[in-house]
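S2.1 Query sequence (DUF4345 domain-containing protein)
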Amino acid sequence: MITGSFLLLALTLGYLVTVGLSMAATFGITAASPDLVAQDHRITQRYKFLQDGVWLVCTMVGAYVMALILGREHSPWLGAAALVTVLVGVLWRNAWERRQRGIGHQILISLATLVGVGAGFFFRLH
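Output structure tokens follow.
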């Protein structure tokens, strides 16, 4: 029961940190350099790659926060798997962003999620 409560709390905070940081970075990049983001009403390739990298960093930070909450006592790798599942699930369910991003970047950002969450947990637990 307690482990489940910690897992739910950690998952919620890990998700909110990841998405919150990503949104803040997206808004900041867009405000600082709108030409980098879009040209002729199309998202640029450079920006897509930048977003993939930003997402990688955001998932590392969100996973680190989640691992802080879970510690070693409350199934940390189960938590990591849950965070990856939720983040990748949301990425693939958002049809509009999936269309904008393209299948190549969709796969890349999914892999970045897996690597970022793994790295965040690894850095915290080792």
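The first helix runs from residue 2 to 32. The two ends are 26 Å apart (CA to CA).
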